[in-house]
Amino acid sequence: LSPGAKMGCFTFIKVMMILFNLAIFLSGGTLLGVGIWVRVDGESFLNIFGALSSSILQVVNVGYLLIAIGAILLVIGFLGCYGAQKESKCLLMMFFSVVLIIFIAEVAAAVLALVFTGLAETLLTGLVTPLLKEKYGVDTEFTNIWNITMTQVHCCGLNNYTDFNNSYFYETHGSYPMQCCDMQEPCNSTLAAQSAVQGCFNQILEEIRTNAGVAGGVAAGIAALEIASMAVSMYLYCRLDEK
Hints:
Mean pLDDT: 79
Low-confidence stretches: 51-56
Number of strands: 0
Radius of gyration: 23 Å
Strand content: under 5%
Subcellular location: Lysosome membrane; Membrane
Membrane topology: Multi-pass membrane protein
Transmembrane segments: 12-38, 58-79, 91-116, 214-238
Distance between the termini: 15 Å
Largest sheet: none
Keywords: Glycoprotein, Lysosome, Membrane, Transmembrane, Transmembrane helix
Order of helices and strands: HHHHHHHHHH
Family: Belongs to the tetraspanin (TM4SF) family.
């Protein structure tokens, strides 16, 4: 290519890099705002987005997760957009490094999720079950979110009704939440065992398996974008040496 064509190609890719990362920056700001909204008024978020959002909220704290993802996207968007606009090798390399770290972490998480589903269940049980015992019936928002989840998804606790054994709610009311007994009261251990309502973790896994194709496609698309972003940032980085 002639020097003019090379410069035109460089300028085009630079502009695309700026626009792409500007979109990432704005998306990060949006997610950050939604995360703050979830933390401030989680119940209205659940009412709008329905049962699946409420079930996911029990496994991970969506508010904090969205805030973290939003903040990361803000950083990535800023590094990519400002680095390309200012033609800063330092910022472009930082952008490349951050995206590479995230890509490696995503691949590792995907492998662990596929290979160690049982381990994931054990870890979640260790994290979520103590919260159920301590906060269900005490924290109003936490209790409302779990009630919405268990009612709409038709599940009980993370694993089953035994998650509420020795909990504040059970000690106070002498029974399990009525969702553990197909909405029958009083929900004692005998009725809960007969009802055999599944835990919410199993229900979420079933949702994931049902939508595995869509989730895989989205994950592949995100991975492709990350690889393309790293390639473009490295192209700009290398081309700056020639200018």
